[in-house]
Amino acid sequence: RTPKPQSSRTMRLATFLLIGLLGCTAPRPQTITPAQAMKEHLQRGDSARREGQIDAALREYRYVHQIAADSEPGARARDAIVAIELARIVRGEHLSIPQPGSEPPPAASAHPETLLLIENRTGARVYAFVQGISAHLAEVDARGAVTLSILPGQTEVGIRADDPSALPFYGRHLYNVGALHRISVGPSPSPR
């Protein structure tokens, strides 16, 4: 004897009873919190970095930093971006940043700080990567300037332009407490 074909209604009822007996439920859509999403992007960035996929890692870190710069994940992303960019600058051809000039901080300052003034005298936007006791990441518009409050001590500074033909700048110097240190970058004299 050949079995009779089951109706679709009978099949749905059988499936429903089987799921109920086994204690299974249909999968629920998973909601991800922003904190979980940032953590996943950081993990993907870390994984890509370990595998040598630096551009993929930077995309993940930059996404986190752009979305949550003032949070703990944003700080982790910033630290990773600064470390990667400084390593790229140091490994490649670059111009040296001479020991920055030092002057007393502005009189308006209520307490002595270590300030780093980065002046951009190029015709392109530049990106500054600063790593000492803490890390800083800054964009400086063409012919603009930015002042960073940094912790005193041995600090690495890398600066690269939006223009890929321009050589980046790099320097590692001791920055003193209670001083304003000035770095001024101009057009790269020897294009790549």
Note the main attributes of this structure.
27% strand; 4-stranded mixed β-sheet; 192 residues; 5-stranded mixed β-sheet; alpha+beta; single chain
What this model shows, in words?
With 192 residues, the chain is an alpha+beta fold. It has helices at 8-22, 34-50, 54-68, 72-91; strands at residues 95-96, 101-103, 114-120, 126-131, 135-140, 145-150, 153-161, 169-175, 180-185. Helix 2 (34-50) runs antiparallel to helix 3, helix 2 (34-50) runs parallel beside helix 4 (72-91) and helix 3 runs antiparallel to helix 4. The protein is elongated. The N and C termini lie far apart (83 Å).
Question: What secondary-structure arrangement, pairings included, does this model have?
Answer:
Blueprint: H1 8-22, H2 34-50, H3 54-68, H4 72-91, E1 95-96, E2 101-103, E3 114-120, E4 126-131, E5 135-140, E6 145-150, E7 153-161, E8 169-175, E9 180-185
Parallel strand pairs: 1-8, 3-9
Antiparallel strand pairs: 2-9, 3-6, 4-5, 4-7, 7-8
Helix pairs in contact: 2-3, 2-4, 3-4
Give the biggest beta sheet. Answer: 5 strands, mixed
Oligomer: single chain
- Pattern of helices and strands: HHHHEEEEEEEEE
**How much β-strand is present in the residues?**
25-35%
Mean pLDDT: 84
| Rg calculated over all Cα atoms | 27 Å
Strand order of the largest sheet: 1-8-7-4-5
Helix content: 25-40%
Poorly predicted runs of 5 or more residues: none
Total count of strands: 9
| Count of runs of 4 or more consecutive helical residues | 4
Secondary structure category: alpha+beta
Gap from first CA to last CA: 83 Å
Silhouette: elongated
